[in-house]
Design goal:
Elements (H helix, E strand, L loop, with lengths): L6 E5 L2 E5 L2 H14 L5 E6 L1 H7 L18 E6 L2 H11 L8 H15 L2 E6 L2 H14 L4 E6 L3 H5 L1 H14 L3 E5 L4 H9 L7 E4 L3 H6 L7 H5 L3 H8 L1 H10 L1 H10 L31 E10 L6 H11 L5 E7 L6 H8 L4 E4 L2 E2 L2 H9 L4 E8 L3 E3 L3 H11 L4 E7 L9 E2 L4 H10 L24 E3 L1 E2 L3 E5 H6 L11 H11 L4 E11 L8 H18 L2 H16 L10 H6 L11 E2 L10 E6 L6 H13 L4 E7 L5 H6 L4 E6 L4 H11 L5 E4 L7 H12 L5 E8 L6 H10 L3 H5 L6 E4 L1 H4 L11 H6 L7 E11 L5 H22 L5 H10 L4 H21 L16
Parallel strand pairs: 3-4, 3-8, 5-6, 5-7, 7-8, 9-10, 9-13, 10-11, 15-20, 22-23, 22-25, 23-24, 26-28
Antiparallel strand pairs: 1-2, 12-21, 13-19, 14-20, 15-19, 16-18, 17-20, 25-27, 26-27
């Protein structure tokens, strides 16, 4: 801004143009009369301005460091502390040029020059007072118009653009903008060029001052730097936060981050030539693309189609190469993408390797592209969003851009975050999502709605959606040690370490369904542990130890919640960290042991695809016999199962599980054999480990450990399984694990399955403790009933089966033994409450079992897969 003829300093991280009053007035009036692009925007820089726009502020770098800004900013010195600091830096005392001091002289000079003046902001009552005062004191002033939008309109892009068009239609040459900091500066920066005004004055309560509704401090108060105390006394409720809470940190910025030489601007980023358009089609692996879109999937069949369709609409603006890296989904995601979207580069990563590893694997196949876009599969991209992100990336010379994410109900999700620190961890521990407007040093997440209304640099954001320059994406691989959670915190930090900026662009909008990674106690524990791992990576051992202690405190305050059960214990015992979810690789089909898997199925169309998907590759390769025995099915279970190459489907009209098991045995030719429930999920690696264990000859029967998925289950179900999973008998028996296997020698113990309800209990009691085992391998996932009603129905069948088996063997009930185990499982108030719930279910289940019944079935956990 050479034409200003001013000295420039940096105060608290924001520039200030040091000028005398008359040159400042002449510059503003000359620009107003001359017009032209870009318009001149004038801001008063005081401590409140530093709080918002200075170093570490929410809007730091939004105005002066944004090459995309469509206005030219003039920053005037305001406030006694800034006057004193500028004198320390330059050796000269510069005058204070507050907006309230310049507002009246500018009106008078505008009247003399015949300039048209408009007013944006202030209440309608104050605007009427101002109009009367102007008519009396400045009768020849051309007032172009007055606008008094509410906060909702100012936060809306369409409404703000409409207001700007109205102002442009009025012919205003000077526009007073009195919306309060930081809203007025942000609005001017985003929409000022659309108003047609040559000069925009961000003068805060200018309308109120000019209308006479707010009294100015006496001259002697201002001269002694005490105007803030005068205004605080007049409006304590409104100004206490600004002066008493925001003031001290801003003053600290002023004294520690001020200099006479502004930082050099980053060199312009060269724009690559636009890639050839391929509307409605994704480009192949060769040639240049505007963006390589990376999507990492895991059991994403319900969501991926809608994302790809929304991306297909974006090809009208940009050439996109779309890559889907599938982390061994068990629900047919990869096949669905390949069949429905053949122009997508879809591949398997070779296991469930984690989010970072999936991104890195896709980048190795991304080909030539100007940018990389990383998207979660449960997103929907709103039309034009990728083009808007690319424009922001180039115009602001950013390293990365993140969009606005909205939930399915249309609300903006709080996805913007600050660098984790001790003070923020303490604030989060005690306040969580409460007190969302608390100072930034007490909150990791930005919960203030205004933070999501305007573009601005951020420290990091949720990794569900981001665009990054390709050169940076290649230079900063994602850290695969995190598996899931905190990987984006680490990625954005390393971008900032390269002096790159991350910009938030609210005009780019995507709908985020959320929960795509699943939800469980283990994942909640992993999220908490990875925060500690992140801090350990970048801070000293002492700092990390204190941070981890604060994390433990946070869990202590929340351990009563069902979804936090077990998290505290995991955080306290670092030995347990190795048991948290982590990367797993698929079994090598060429080295897979022989064996058969028999799956009895009665109307299991909602879950059978999910169960078969992990086994399909081995079945197709002929390494594993897989039989689905449909017994009495009246749905399309058989049809779905036949879609999987290599899977053999047998059908029987009789609805009997044990008859289905015998039919599978009759068709199978290999040993050992696994008997798998149709609603259980087992990985190829687990199948391999169980078959290997049974092939060695020592064990005659075995099953893998089980993990109970309680997502969306009723709190009473959480409590029930909180006790059941602690019982030794439940952890050591072959029953209730969703799967068990026997060797050929073990199968000779019974020949064929008798017509019993509890086939797993029948098999379990055939073997001594030394002949059977629950293997410590990757667990099979079982989904118990989601509601108490369904849980009771299943318990009726379970206890009826137990009674039947006891009668066959002449044994007494094991109720007393189970009761003793329940009592021994109690370790405190929470486990005592869980035990009470467990016993309540047990009593009700046994009573219901006495009545004759059929095969009670749980449908609450059998959603469509």
């Amino acid at each position: 801004m050479e034409e200003l003829g001013s000295s420039r300093v940096i105060l608290g991280g924001t520039p200030v143009d040091l000028m005398d009053p008359e040159p400042a007035l002449e510059l503003i009036l000359a620009r107003a009369a001359r017009g032209g692009i870009p318009p001149l925007a004038v801001a008063s820089v005081n401590l409140d301005h530093l709080n918002h726009f200075g170093t570490g502020g929410r809007w730091a770098g939004t105005l002066h460091a944004d090459p995309a800004s469509a206005v030219e900013w003039l920053y005037l010195l305001d406030g006694a502390p800034l006057v004193a600091q500028s004198q320390r830096l330059t050796g000269r005392r510069w005058p204070r040029l507050a907006g309230s001091d310049l507002a009246s002289p500018l009106l008078a000079r505008a009247e003399e020059l015949g300039l048209r003046v408009g007013f944006l902001g202030g209440s309608e009552d104050n605007q009427r007072l101002l109009a009367d005062k102007i008519a009396a004191e400045h009768p020849r002033l051309h007032v172009a118009g007055m606008w008094s939008p509410d906060r909702k309109e100012l936060a809306s892009i369409p409404d703000s653009e409409r207001i700007a068009r109205d102002i442009a239609g009025s012919g205003a040459q000077i526009l007073y903008v009195g919306l309060g900091k930081p809203r007025q500066e942000l609005w001017i920066d985003q929409y000022g060029s659309l108003t047609g005004a040559a000069v925009l004055l961000a003068f805060g309560a200018a309308v109120d001052f000019l209308a006479g509704r707010v009294r100015r401090a006496p001259r002697w108060v201002s001269e002694h730097g005490l105007e803030w105390s005068y205004r605080l006394a007049l409006e304590p409720r409104r100004l206490a936060g600004r002066y008493l809470i925001g003031g001290p940190p801003a003053y600290l910025k002023l004294r520690t981050d001020s200099c006479t030489v502004p930082p050099a601007l980053t060199a312009s980023v060269p724009h690559a030539a636009p890639a050839p358009r391929t509307p409605a089609r994704f480009t192949g692996p060769d040639g240049l693309a505007d963006a390589a879109v990376v999507v990492v999937t895991y059991n994403s069949s319900r969501d991926i189609g809608a994302l790809l369709e929304s991306l297909r609409e974006e090809t009208a603006d940009l050439t996109l190469r779309v890559l889907v890296a599938d982390n061994s989904s068990r629900d047919g995601t990869l096949g669905l993408v390949r069949r429905g979207h053949p122009d997508v580069i879809a591949f398997s990563t070779g296991g469930n390797l984690g989010y970072s590893a999936g991104i890195n694997a896709a980048l190795r196949r991304a080909g030539d592209s100007a940018t990389v876009v990383v998207l979660n599969p449960d997103l929907r991209v709103q039309r034009g969003s990728l083009k808007t992100m690319l424009q922001r990336l180039r115009a602001s010379r950013a390293g990365a851009v993140v969009p606005r994410l909205i939930d399915p109900d249309g609300g903006t999700s709080p996805t913007l975050h600050r660098e984790p620190s001790l003070t923020r961890a303490v604030g989060d521990a005690f306040l969580g999502r409460r007190a969302g407007s608390r100072p930034g040093w007490l909150a990791t997440t930005d919960f203030n709605p205004e933070g999501y209304d305007h573009p601005h640099p951020v420290q990091w954001a949720t990794g569900a959606a981001l665009m990054v320059r390709r050169s940076l994406a290649d230079s900063v691989p994602w850290d695969e040690s995190y598996f899931l959670y905190s990987e984006e915190t680490d990625f954005f930090r390393r971008l900032r370490m390269l002096d790159e900026t991350v910009w938030y662009e609210p005009a780019a909008t995507m709908t985020h369904k959320g929960g795509g990674s699943g939800a469980s106690t283990e994942l909640n524990a992993l999220m908490a542990i990875n925060r500690t791992r992140y801090i350990r990576k970048y801070h000293s051992a002492a700092y990390a130890a204190v941070f981890h202690t604060v994390q433990i405190l946070s869990e202590v305050l929340r351990c009563w919640k069902p979804d936090r059960q077990g998290v505290l214990w995991t955080m306290l015992s670092e030995d347990r960290w190795a048991d948290l979810p982590g990367p797993t690789r698929d079994a090598d089909a060429s080295e897979f042991p022989a064996g058969s898997v028999i799956i009895p199925a009665h109307n299991e169309s909602g879950v059978i695809a999910r169960t078969l998907a992990p086994l399909a590759q081995l079945a197709a390769a002929g390494r594993l016999e897989v039989f689905v025995v449909c017994n009495g099915c009246t749905d399309d279970t058989a049809e779905i199962a036949r879609r999987f190459e290599g899977v053999t489907v047998l059908e029987s009209p009789r609805p009997s599980k044990t008859a289905a098991l015998n039919a599978g045995d009759a068709a199978a030719t290999r040993w050992p054999r696994l008997y798998l429930d149709a609603d259980a999920q087992i990985s190829p690696g687990t199948v391999r480990d169980v078959l290997n264990a049974l092939s060695e000859g020592t064990l005659l029967a075995a099953r893998p450990a089980a993990r109970v998925d309680l997502q969306d289950a009723h709190p009473l179900i959480h409590a029930y399984y909180g006790t059941r999973l602690r019982l030794p008998s439940a952890r050591s028996g072959l029953w209730a694990g969703g799967v068990y296997g026997v060797s050929e020698r073990g199968h000779q113990r019974f020949g064929e399955f008798p017509d019993v309800i509890a086939d797993d209990l029948f098999v379990d009691r055939l073997f001594a403790a030394s002949e059977k085992a629950v293997l410590d391998v990757e667990p099979v996932v079982i989904r118990p009933p989601r509601t108490p009603r369904d849980q009771l129905a299943v318990l009726h069948r379970v206890y009826r089966g137990n009674a039947e088996q006891n009668g066959r063997e002449g044994q007494h009930s094991t109720a007393r033994h189970t009761l003793a185990e329940v009592v021994r499982s109690i370790r405190g108030p929470l486990s005592a409450a869980n035990a009470a719930v467990y016993l309540g279910f047990a009593v009700a289940g046994r009573r219901g079992a006495a009545r004759p019944g059929g095969w009670e079935r749980d449908n609450s956990s059998r959603g469509d897969s």
